[in-house]
Protein: Potassium voltage-gated channel subfamily E member 2
Amino acid sequence: MSDFANLTQTLEDAFKKVFTNYMNSWHMNETKAEKALSDRLAAENFNNVVWYLMVMIGMFSFIIVAILVSTVKSKRREHSDDPYHRYIEEDWTAKLKNQILIMENPMAN
Structure:
């Protein structure tokens, strides 16, 4: 089993060296003008990425805040004369009154 682990490690190191050498030789073949151009393009693209991310995060934040505000406003404007809400309110108030009476008069039962 250790032979396979050593083989795997050896192959991994060999592939890393080949890839690193290839990438280093690829960059060595660039002229100064190409290097300056690629550096400038990389910097400009990075700036564009930052702006893009800022705009996307801003739009996402605006949408989330709008959804939250509209949800809070709709909850605040619930119709108190809605039969379902009146039923819940009456049911809870009746249960609360019964519990208070039971707690005040425990000997009455």
